[in-house]
Amino acid sequence: MTIEQRYQSVQQRLQAAAKRAGRDPEAIRLVAVSKKQPLEKIQAAADLGQLLFGENRVQELREKVPALPDRLTWHLIGHLQKNKIRQALPLVTMIESVDSLELARQIDRIAGELGFVPQVLLEVNLAGEASKYGFNPDELPSELEALLAFDHLEICGVMAIPPMVEEPEQARPYFVQLRELRDRLQTSAGVPFPELSMGMSADFEIAIEEGATMVRVGSALFGPRS
Ligand SMILES: *Cc1c(COP(=O)(O)O)cnc(C)c1O
User: Fold this and answer.
1) Is 71 strand, coil or helix?
2) Is the pLDDT of residue 158 over 90?
3) How far is the CA of 60 from the centre of ligand 1 (A)?
């Protein structure tokens, strides 16, 4: 399949899922996950009108962002090491993977030095998997006050990568869990956290049915990663 066919297919699936859920498809942003994909494929997606991309490594962002048109925007979706914060900030419009209070503190400090106020999402490790980064969903409410006190972070919502499941439908309870956590945080903070980043190639339609405002889709758009 060509990128064009894949892109049209993902767009149709996105629209259909939004329709099923009675949601406006415009309220769902497609983050094209371009990690391990060559520049030509990213350029091809951009030519089709896809302007928002997600990368999980700062090194790849450093190589790709300057080589591609300025009109593209980038989200960091992978764990950010503290020693890479300074490099990452000028390259991305959002860090979706703020996975600890300590990382938030470091980003806030460096963003302050550089004069940035990056948009961020709080990444939640929904099932407490040892292999994943992220806030513990039970502890996050008590860390919220400290997070909200950072002047150089705009906290826009939450993000999660649920545990691997055999059937996409089995991811649904995790998406519900993330949405409900977001709702609780929003109520206790008294400020909106509109963004819910959840759903990938296998399960983004279910995530949309459960309220996703951003879906992170890689292989369904670009084919297998090298
Ligand atoms: C790789 C990745 C994706 C996309 O995965 P696909 O299954 O290829 O759609 C989404 N989110 C994160 C955080 C990723 O690392």
Assistant:
1) coil
2) yes
3) 15
